[in-house]
Amino acid sequence: MRAIVVSATGGPEVLEYSDYPDPELNPGEVLVDVAAGGVNFIDVYHRMGRYPLSLPFVPGNEGAGTVAAVGEDVEGVSVGDKVAWANVMGSYAEKAVVPVSHLLMVPEGVEPELAAAVTLQGLTAHYLTHSVHEVKPGDDVLVHAAAGGMGLLLVQIAKLRGARVIGTVSTEEKEELARRAGADEVLRYKGFADAVRDLTGSGVHVVYDGVGATTFAESLAALRPRGMMALYGQASGPVPPIDPQVLAREGSLFLTRPSLGAYIATKDELAWRASDLYGWLASGELRVHVSRRYPLAEAARAHEDLEARRTTGKLLLIP
Ligand SMILES: NC(=O)c1ccc[n+]([C@@H]2O[C@H](COP(=O)([O-])OP(=O)(O)OC[C@H]3O[C@@H](n4cnc5c(N)ncnc54)[C@H](OP(=O)(O)O)[C@@H]3O)[C@@H](O)[C@H]2O)c1
């Protein structure tokens, strides 16, 4: 098959479009012809070696397509089924193997491309708004990078749950997108904590911060007493170590650094989140903004664009 292969970690140029052996199908897995692979920031961390993996590897943690073969001990899945997955490596390729524990059936009426665009970030936005902090009507919520892949979904889902949503973005175009997704207020990053306090009085109930290094300290200052700091990513770089006493000083705050795997660890939990997510898509309550589609061979360009903050919403790779 053709795939993107990383043989040494580094910049976008290490994403090489090459011939690569077809993945081996083991018991409990299915082989999928990939229709589209989602691009996620974690793919950048893997490529850079910030989250180390053994080399060589095929990147990509999310995709959707058609089942081409079914391994031993797999029940309820047939060749031809439309499926999607998240948190399984190897989707920057024409074929991928997916363990059934991570396999989701794409419902009738949802295009596989759309499933590839929403599954990883949608499941993440679900656990952040339903489990890390259960957003309630009337909550004030701050979403950083509100026009990004994660951001646009977080804004919409927090609105579905009745919150007032404040977003941060870097440009006017991104502001417009965040507002169209339902954000009540949209700020630039400079001085955002003061602006949040002006809007809310005592601060927000929760901050969803996937930006990391450049926003972390001010995000704590934007929280109300006993608020929740959900540091779920580090697009601007890792956050340096902190003294826990800071949490007391800023108002008895909670700090968590969650990752998707811990929130879809059981088949039931994965099914609950996916059923909500695909249900909102079917009903039109959730819209997915696919801003760019790249041929698989141009994965390096997709990474350059993502890291340079040139993108909005979701990026897809099409084999
Ligand atoms: N923990 C989890 O379970 C989980 C799951 C999925 C994603 N994530 C995290 O969620 C975050 C967003 O991921 P995504 O794939 O949806 O990306 P994205 O938000 O579409 O893209 C990143 C955005 O971050 C903002 N940003 C601010 N400073 C930046 C910098 N120095 N370099 C690059 N971007 C910067 C930019 O928006 P502005 O220009 O508006 O600032 C940029 O567009 C990432 O940190 C990712 O690791 C975590």
From TrEMBL:
Sequence ranges assigned to domain Enoyl reductase (ER) in this UniProt record: 10-317
Record keywords: NADP, Oxidoreductase
Domain of life: Bacteria
Classification via InterPro entries: ADH-like_C (IPR013149), ADH-like_N (IPR013154), ER (IPR020843), GroES-like_sf (IPR011032), NAD(P)-bd_dom_sf (IPR036291), QOR-like (IPR047618), Quin_OxRdtase/zeta-crystal_CS (IPR002364)
Cell division in keyword set: no
Protein name per the record: Quinone oxidoreductase
Organism: Planomonospora alba
